[in-house]
Design a protein that fits this description.
heterodimer, A: mainly alpha, 14 helices, globular, B: alpha+beta, Alpha-Beta Plaits, 2 domains, two-stranded antiparallel ribbon, 4 helices, 7 strands, 18% strand, elongated
């Protein structure tokens, strides 16, 4: 007890939270990888992974072990520093937003009063990781993928911010805990259906998933920005992508679907996490279904969609919201 | 302006319909099989390598060792040999070899046979470590099928 008491309790709290979040992050990537492959298979009427464990449930763990055992190849004439840094840069910023997300009323590592802005800013760092990976790889496919990722993220960050702003205008705070608190009577998805729709569409684009997966379009760019990565380098990008999906879905749950609110449970201030996870995984399921339903859009279609449809609609939405809030 | 909104409406509607299609497929039965564990029946039209037809009455081959198949084969992969055994008037087949490495499954041998003594087998699990494994002794395969 002596050693613990000299450390500030807040530091220990954060340390525990970070450890839980990192372990959850790997678990989430494994679960999402399995779900993605199973759902994809069943949409195409195949059984999917079946061999390792009951209905292939251990498949992703085996894959992870395989990736761990692989050599980290560094291709000829790459920028070694950037090449090494990029996977870490893609992986680290996705941990931080999870610190401010309120999983339930009392399960939140830190309630920042600028939580939403913190999440958005960390999301932008991820784009830089893709750019660094593409630039450092000395590969034209990787370069093209990175360029596309940047153009796409800039285009889709605006509707995301505007749709978030509509919610912020209604509850006058950037703190995620207070935003969820404001939805006790009615979820914002019923008051802001348009903002929710725009957020989900732009969120799918922001995570670079099909039908907006141009940065890694297999048929055109082999694997886009992570073409040259092998082993754990690739694996970190993969985990980063799935965690990004989780963050986008959990922010949607917090802003629009009432976070931890749901039918009453015993120990509600902790067990609200059940409702939170149900909402998040429902959205993730939707994102997977979207990926396996729609074909990839062309690049001009992608940018047209952002600038001609999403941005004007979110502007109109925010204008109406502002007027109604002021009345 | 009217077109702009009608595009959004029709586009959005078709996107939702598409999601419905995949969602339905999610709960429909699986159509593929786990191959090495489960196998499906091969269609009778399947053209594997050739086999001798087993005559159910005489319990032997119908081949008269005429050598038409040997001549018809464009890749020279059939080798047959007939001998006059003692006490028999006609030739009896003693050797029927197929070099499957060269066979293109054209079926000229099956069509040229005057006695319809050749047929396509249903074999498709063909994998081996050496080239010689694909020099099939068709006569021996028939002996194995005989009861």
């Amino acid at each position: 007890m002596e050693t613990i008491s000299i450390l500030p309790p807040e530091l220990i709290r954060m340390l525990i939270a970070v450890i839980i979040i990192i372990s959850f992050l790997f678990l989430n990537a494994i679960m999402m990888g399995y779900l993605e492959r199973k759902i994809a298979a069943h949409v195409q009427r195949r059984p999917g992974p079946m061999e390792v464990g009951f209905h292939g449930i251990l498949q992703l763990i085996v894959d992870g072990v395989k990736l761990l055992g692989k050599e980290l190849l560094i291709p000829f004439k790459v920028d070694r520093t950037l090449f090494r840094v990029a996977p870490l840069l893609s992986f680290t910023p996705v941990i931080l937003p999870l610190l401010v997300i309120p999983f339930s009323e009392k399960l939140q590592a830190r309630d920042l009063n600028l939580g939403l802005i913190f999440i958005v800013s960390m999301g932008s760092v991820n784009v830089m990781a893709l750019l660094v990976a593409g630039w450092g790889s000395n590969n034209k496919y990787a370069m093209f993928g990175a360029m596309r990722a940047v153009a796409q993220s800039i285009a889709f960050e605006i509707p995301i911010l505007l749709s978030m702003l509509a919610v912020v205008l209604m509850c006058n705070t950037f703190s995620l805990k207070e935003i969820v608190g404001a939805q006790e009577k009615i979820w914002f998805v019923f008051l802001q259906p348009l903002a929710f729709l725009i957020y989900v569409i732009a969120g799918v684009a922001e995570t670079n998933r099909a039908p907006f997966d141009l940065p890694e379009a297999e048929s055109e760019l082999t694997a886009g920005f992570h073409t040259e990565y092998s082993g754990m380098g690739f694996s970190l990008f993969f985990i980063g992508e799935y965690t990004n999906m989780f963050i986008v879905a959990s922010v949607a749950a917090v802003l629009f679907l009432g976070g931890w609110h749901g039918p009453h449970l015993p120990y509600g201030e902790y067990l609200g996490i059940v409702w939170f996870f149900l909402k998040v995984y429902f959205l993730l399921f939707l994102m997977i279904m979207i990926r396996w339903t729609y074909p990839r859009v062309r690049f001009d279609q992608l940018l047209n969609f952002a600038w001609k449809y999403l941005v004007p609609f979110s502007f109109v939405n925010i204008l109406i919201t502002a007027v109604l809030v002021k009345l | 302006m009217k077109q702009y909104f009608s595009e959004i409406y029709t586009g959005g509607k078709s996107l939702v319909e598409g999601l419905g299609v995949t969602f339905k497929a999610l709960f429909q039965p699986i159509v593929t099989v786990q191959y090495p564990r489960e196998e499906i029946d091969i269609t009778p039209n399947y053209r594997g390598h050739i086999d001798l037809v087993l005559d159910p009455e005489k319990n032997t081959f119908l081949c008269i060792s005429c050598g038409m198949c040997e001549k018809a084969c464009p890749s020279d992969c059939i080798k047959i040999k007939g001998e006059k055994l003692e006490g028999e008037k006609k030739k009896t087949l003693v050797l029927f070899e197929l070099d499957f490495t060269k066979c293109s499954l054209c079926g000229a041998c099956v069509e040229s046979c005057p006695k319809d003594a050749l047929e396509f087998s249903q074999e498709y699990n063909l994998a081996a470590f050496s080239r010689e494994a694909f020099h099939f002794d068709i006569l021996k395969r028939l002996e194995e099928r005989r009861t």
